[in-house]
Write a structure and sequence with these properties.
The protein is globular, with a radius of gyration of 23 Å. It has two helices and 21 strands. By secondary structure, the chain is mainly beta.
Length: about 350
Amino acid sequence: DLKILDGTFAIRGHEVTDAEFVNITTTFTPGEWIDVEMMWDATQVTVVINGDSYGPFTTASLNVASDVANAHVRTVVMKLGDTSGVATTDFLVDNLKVYSDTAGQTLVYEDDFESYDLTHDLAANYDGATSEATVTQPFTATDTGGGSATVNTSKVASIKDTKIDDAGELRYKRDSSDALAQGKMSVSVLKAADEAKAAYVSLFNGSTSTSNAIVDLKILDGTFAIRGHEVTDAEFVNITTTFTPGEWIDVEMMWDATQVTVVINGDSYGPFTTASLNVASDVANAHVRTVVMKLGDTSGVATTDFLVDNLKVYSDTAGQTLVYEDDFESYDLTHDLAANYDGATSEA
């Protein structure tokens, strides 16, 4: 039972006065999102808060003490307040996932709350004890330079393309000695409505010329294509997933050797063979060094910003070994990301 206080946490039954004290040293800033994971088996529990792990420790449940079967989880609760008095603000919940294994490989339930109408009463979909839980959108409308989009009030990377001879891009690049022979990349992106220029999410080795992309996802006006795998190419990858401009898109890319899989909003495409000309000559060029999020091209300019958030890179295809992540919360507003990313980063 994780208790979220005013910037600190406690585990009820494992507080400082209890027989088994679990000392939660992680803190948080009220008004910012907190990531919580809980893993259990038999009577042992581990809690992870914003990446900090606590446990395993023994459950304090009196039921479990009398019968170990009572450690089998049936109920997950997110709760605000108690039976005394009222709260003056809302408690927000998102991206609920439940797995039947401690490694988080076998998903048995998930909800990102995107499918419901605003103000929908979640008691209709959850257990009957659910109370005062409705769907809301804690976002602010932001002018993205021509069209309007709703973006999360947390910080994100914003890419412009105002130069007629260059594209705007955010480029993460690893040393040649740290190229990843296999791995996974995940990122959330938002392409604004009324933007004529395409946006891209791409993986490269060293060379970032288009012909050498290990995979190059082109984000158009509601549709996608994979460059080198379009309808006229020898190996056509038919992307049937669509999106609404101005809404976030979740992208994952997994690779090993010459095979790539792309997942868009949960829809998986592949594995397919990379179209990179470099890889055709040397399989080591399929090792990923460079991740690029790009808006526009070297001809003309874009009229809106391309938004990027929650970039993660892993050294395995299952996404277990994290080697880089950025949620952009640590930077000041308007900070130039060229100071933190590869020197080819432009207008990010």
